[in-house]
Amino acid sequence: MAHLVQVGLGSGGMSVIDMLVRDLRISKVTLIEPDLLKPHNLPRHLLSSDNVGKSKLLSAVKWLKDRNANLEIVSIEAFLQDPDKQEQIHKAIKDANFGVCAVDNEEAKYQWCSLMRQHGIPWTLGEVLSGGIGGFVHTFVPGGPCYACACSYLKREGPKDSKDLEPDYSNPSGQVEEARIPASFASIQSIASLHALATLDLLDAKIVPSSFLLPLQKVEGIFSESLKKIVVNVSKNENCLFCCRSTEVVADVDDLLQKKLKELSGGLGL
Questions:
Q1: How confident is the model over 69-94, as pLDDT tens digits?
Q2: Which domains does the chain have, with CATH numbers?
Q3: pLDDT digits (tens, 9 = 90+) for 52-66
Q4: CB burial class (10 A; 0-12, 13-18, 19+) of residue 217?
Q5: Cβ-count burial of 15 within 10 angstroms (0-12 exposed, 13-18 middle, 19+ buried)?
Q6: What are 208-240's pLDDT values in tens digits?
Q7: Spatial separation of the C-alpha atoms in residues 202 and 263, rounded to whole Å
Q8: Within 10 Å of residue 244's Cβ, how many Cβ atoms?
Q9: What strands lie across the sheet with 134-140, from one edge to the other?
Q10: What is the pTM of this model?
C-alpha cells in the first residue's frame, strides 16, 4: 500500500487528490495546505459554499474521508516554507512513496523540488496556463531533470510592465494583470485528470522523467490547434543551481541566486 504526500489544495490540487484517493492502492496521504477557502475560489473548486471561510485542509479531509473511509490522512496546516513545520514535513516526505505538487507559487515549487530531491522521492506537477488555454504535466524522478531544469528549458520569463506586450500565459500567479486570466473549471479538471494519470504511473512503477503540454484551445500565435499533445524533451541542465548541489540539504533559492550573481560578476559585490 502506498503513501502519497501532496502540497496544495486549491482548485487543481483538490481535483487531483480527489481522483487519486479513489485508487485503493493508496492507503495514506499527507496533505500540506495553509489557506482558507474564499468566495472567489468557488467557481473552480470542488468544495462547496458551506466551506467558505473554513480551512481548505480540514474541509478536504472530510471530503476525502467520505470517498475513502479507510484512508489514513495526515494534515499539516502550514506553508511549505514554515520553519516551525520543517521537521514534520521532512518526516512525512521521507515516509512517502511519491509526491504531488499542486501550487502556483514559484518559491513553493522550488522548495518542493529541493525536498523531493533530498529524500529521493519521485513527484508530479500540474500547471494550468492562464485562461485555461492548456496546461503542462511534469514527472520528476531522482537523478533526472528537476523543476529548475524544466523552467530553464522552457525559458520562462514573466511579462514586463507594459500593456503593449502579449499576455504571458505561462504564469497564472504572476504579479502583472495580463498574466492572471482565470481558467474555467472544465480546463482545470482536464489538466488535473492528466496530472492524476501521470501520478498513478508512478504507483505502477512507470518511473520516467517526462513533460508534456496539452493545448485545450486554439489561440492565435500560441496554439495552432487544440487537444494535440506536445511532448517537451527536458534534459538535465548540468549548470542547474539545484541539480549541481548535494541532495543532503534543501536549497535556499535566495542564497543560490546571490552566489550565482557573484560568480557571474567575477566576485565583485553587487
A1: 999 999 999 999 999 999 999 999 99
A2: 2-264 (3.40.50.720)
A3: 999 999 999 999 999
A4: middle
A5: buried
A6: 999 999 999 999 888 999 999 999 999 998 888
A7: 38
A8: 12
A9: 72-76, 26-32, 2-7, 98-101, 123-128, 134-140, 210-215, 230-231
A10: 0.84
